[in-house]
């Protein structure tokens, strides 16, 4: 296979049989949508959606010093994560720039699974391997060992409960437990990227098709639909969740992104980027850099990543993500803007959309929060 050929997930033929529009995403051929992305989005908000996320990068870290290695390599306190729980964290460069944002699951006392974004999986694997020097721990590339399916939306607990005897009621948000779903061994995690309740199911690739079909059948009466990456993007945008390459990059530290809370200076070990991040924390406390805010359109024109945010004829920031919001019925965007214009309700803010200054309301993130 030539290096230019996109990788295909175990569900590739099934997506095509469902009429999916496929797209290249981070070197993978992935379903963008099956029909209407608005319908898929609304299904997740109101009922349930089924996603193939097998492009995500799983890296297993095992050994007596697995926790110590992760404490050194990542900005979070991984040795403090209890077995069966997960934590959102980041891996940074020595200069504090964000290499990727991650979810780390503690599968056992000396076993962790690091889940990286598809576009950064190799970078994260290389960095962890390099940072493992001197630790009694092994870093293993498990990207081909897993398929990842996600069931998201208010009906997802009922759908999954019909296929497993695992204790879903006892499974907290950001927790994972081994179980069997429709006869398939799986790591069942209560995580997601949609702003809704839901589950991510890590299984062997050879079990992906039968699990997808079982979930589809179990979800028929509940209104479950297959969902592509397009609605996943509008769902995470409404939920104010950052996307690497848009809201996060090596040019930004976690403090620049308003996510300084993930950096744990109080952990016992030194960690890569500590000195630079301590300086970034001081800078952010003294004079916040540009702040990540929400923007809601007064008109119909949709802002896109990179568009300038303006006020009083001056550029005060940049749009990082923008799309029509099916839930709000208006175009929305996330943008980094100067602190002086970051307060919700700030007057006179506009987005330069192809030379026309379209008025936008500054709002606090997220745009959408589910009712618990």
Task: Describe it.
The protein has 372 residues and is of the alpha+beta class. The protein folds into 3 domains: 7-54 and 146-238, Gyrase A, domain 2, CATH 3.30.1360.120; 55-141 and 253-287, Alpha-Beta Plaits; 290-372, Beta Barrel (Elongation Factor Tu (Ef-tu), domain 3). 20% of the residues lie in helices and 33% in strands. It has 8 helices and 20 strands. It has helices at residues 12-17, 37-46, 66-73, 121-131, 156-161, 208-219, 229-238, 274-286, and strands at 7-8, 21-25, 28-33, 48-52, 57-62, 86-92, 98-108, 111-116, 138-141, 147-152, 176-181, 184-189, 198-203, 224-226, 291-297, 308-311, 314-325, 330-337, 349-353, 356-363. It has a 6-stranded mixed sheet, with helices on both faces. A 6-stranded antiparallel barrel has the order 15-18-17-16-19-20. Helix 2 (37-46) packs across helix 7 (229-238). The longest helix is centred in the last third of the chain and has 13 residues, at 274-286. It is globular. It starts with 6 loop residues before the first strand and ends in a 9-residue tail after the last strand.
